[in-house]
Protein 1
Amino acid sequence: MKTALLEKVEQSQLKETAPEFDVGDSVRVHVKIKEGEKERVQVYAGTVIARDGGGANETFTVRRISYGEGVERVFPVHSPYVVKVDVDRRGKTRRAKLYYLRTRTSKQSRLKERV
């Protein structure tokens, strides 16, 4: 159980407008990358296969296929480095975690679109 002080500190860490997306959605995550003195925004596109945690510790996992190899990346929802999350397509799922997509390839891994 969290104390009032911890909750107050955690509230200050949260973004005011958290991105709206669910597991199964195809998203484009705009991430701030720092290279030396320069900063730029890089886009990471893929399918959300999991959301974990809550509050300031909430994360989501995005999976994509890059050069025939599956690549997964975990992003904190409330991180200042995550500039924005665009939803390309809403996926229809019946589970909270889509880890089974790791064993699927191309057509098998497609999800139906939520209307």
Note: Strands lie at 26-35, 38-52, 59-66, 69-76, 82-89.
Protein 2
Amino acid sequence: MPYDPMLVQPMREELTRLGIKELRNAADVDEAMKQPGTTLVVVNSVCGCAAAGARPGVAIAMKHDVLPDHIVTVFAGQDLEATQRARDYFTNQPPSSPQMALMKDGQLIHIIHRHHIEGRMPETIASALVYAFDEHCGKAEPSH
């Protein structure tokens, strides 16, 4: 059963107010994965300390001069269909919440699992994202 929408709305807004596009169903995810270029998929979550560091980490990383072409999010525990479809694209990776996957032309090229996020400061999480952006992305401005 999904979480109460009122409970998760503030957590959603931590990412959507940055211009990150929410994917609410499987069709939204499939459309996002068809976009050419790089796409960061943020699996948002209500999970206490890990998600509380993940969302600010994403916000800090988005200030970097090299960003993915697209940045999208699904909400684990709320948008069940969208989250499952996103994870279907994360081939051979266990599900975790939160989780961040960098895709290129619909193929997984980098992933950050909950165990890479939990107990870390937002700046450390941002550094891991920035490293992946520098390694795999070439544009300075994302189109959300």
Note: The chain has a mean pLDDT of 93.
Protein 3
Amino acid sequence: MKNEPAPISFDNTEYAFAAKSDTELKKAHFLFNMMGKPWLVNAGIRFTPLAIKWHLPFTKTIIRATIFRQFVGGETLDQTAAVAAKLAKYNVQVILDYGVEGKEGEANFDHARDEFIRVINYAATQENIPFMSVKVTGFARFALLEKLHSEMNKLEGSLIKRYLKAVNNLSDDERDEWHRVRLRTQRVCEEGNKRNVGVLIDAEETWIQDPVDALTILMMDIFNRGKAVVYNTLQLYRHDRLKFLHDYHAAAVERDFILGAKLVRGAYMEKERERAAAMNYPSPIQPDKEACDKDYNAAVAYCVEHLDRIALIVASHNEYSNLYTTQLLDQKGLPHHHPHVHFSQLYGMSDNITFNLARSGCSVSKYLPFGPIKDVIPYLMRRAQENSSVSGQTGRELGLIKKEMKRRGH
């Protein structure tokens, strides 16, 4: 008789917060309570980067003790190792993210490449770190990505054909610059392939995404032969991404590689809508949350239907989407730890999903950024903003924490 998976309940707070001491739980309660006050979050988002820039006393100490500790693994890989080891005790894996953003210049781009390779080499020594995350904007000038995207959108044909023509339309200096971007990306993917660590390429704003997609598909064509090394990130709050998934599954079949697909809802919604309105072009964003949820779940179903050719990461804080994935696996008689199915949530959020999926035997991870406080500030500000603006997220986190505190008799 086969072992049945443990029933999944995302309301089980005993498992959700098993890794947190009473003190840690109280600190999380305090933090989410503060993030439930939009005026306080908005003031913090404006003031914190300036306080860091001006080296105001105690700023780093306060950040380190609050929002940094909740959402970041540490300032160094060694500090992050302690968090990863703790998660491993609960069968929770880690996606490592070197959380430095927005530093331009060839020397910074080369440094970012070397740091990503260092992360891969470290991850390869750890049993519970199967993936690491990369932003192409870490290796490439934003304006160059923007120009290449714009050139691609003037052309007809498939993504790769438009990409190749657009690269040819660049100036000699720009073409040389892009060649260095491609080599940096390839070097990181090469190391991931050699060390058996998955490389997750992050999604970017829609007006620079096409060259990122093309580059990622080309890396899959090289490295995803018989196994998934490189993954693209699909933001399903875009109304064109479900078709994109179908098209590039067809390309993977034709070219005989594994399509790595990390499915997220998205991270730049307000910015995207504002830019579309300001520049008078149709918004790339879904008309409403219902349309986004429908496409997300359809994408999950499509991937589960084609696991022979697609390696899926369900990177979602939506309880239904995670549960739906496990139900689809059950319907097909597939194990929750299928080698082509992985689940992930951000460190510091949705522990009720992560730890209960792990208990059910799912392959699940926490997305764990690390880096110096001054460098991860943009990431932390997004988490604060997200938790104050995402409908019900802070309330949900607080409700679960209160329930567990009550269960523990506090």
Note: The first helix runs from residue 13 to 16.
